[in-house]
Amino acid sequence: MNTRPAVVLDDVSKTFDSGLQALASVSLQAASGEFLTLLGPSGCGKSSVLKLIAGLDTPTTGSVISPATQAPGEAATAFVFQDPTLMPWANVFDNIALPLRLAGASREMMRARIAPVLATVGLTEFAGSHPAQLSGGMRMRVSLARALVTQPRVLLMDEPFAALDEITRARLNQDLLAWWIERQLTVVFVTHSVYEAVFLSQRVLVMGARPGRILEEVEITAPYPRATTFRTSLEFQQACARLTAALDRAQAGAPA
Q: Is the overall model pTM greater than 0.85, yes or no?
């Protein structure tokens, strides 16, 4: 992992026009190529952090440095939401092609970019299918492919697997790690699941309730690749226990 930061938030606070303060003095860094996860109770500002990194919102105070804020016109950052947000009238190919079409890519360029991404996410045979014909896991794969086809350096993921069954979620966790390693992505991932955070991450930042702030950092030192057997290991159980204790302290508002 390169230690050069890909994302930096420096003393960031965010207050909405309604007067609601979502974030208070949030500082974090994600190194280039790092898998960083934000974990915390509902409403603690995890999604607000992602939107700031994506350049979809601006901080009230403090600064945000990311590819999206430094070069807004470039497709260096991709965002994957909990809902795949696919166009129901379009097939898989055209759903994945959307960001390329908006960027003015030719049909030939789209085919050249989309074919390998379809293979990566295991959907080559479903390029002509429509979302209604796909399972929930397959629809999420289309959403991930649409993000990967832009060849981003930073991938932001807001609880992308929360609505999936455990078997599908576990498989996508493994596949995501393979794509992260293969493409040398920087990933900032949001989840409510301690188990998912431990399986995926190099570092987990635990956030406290609104106004959101980072209370603790837990490092997950298990090497990659992480096989399914990692989930039943003593190392996994111990990391889950550390992270659960940190989350309990955050929810109680107690210091580390």
A: yes
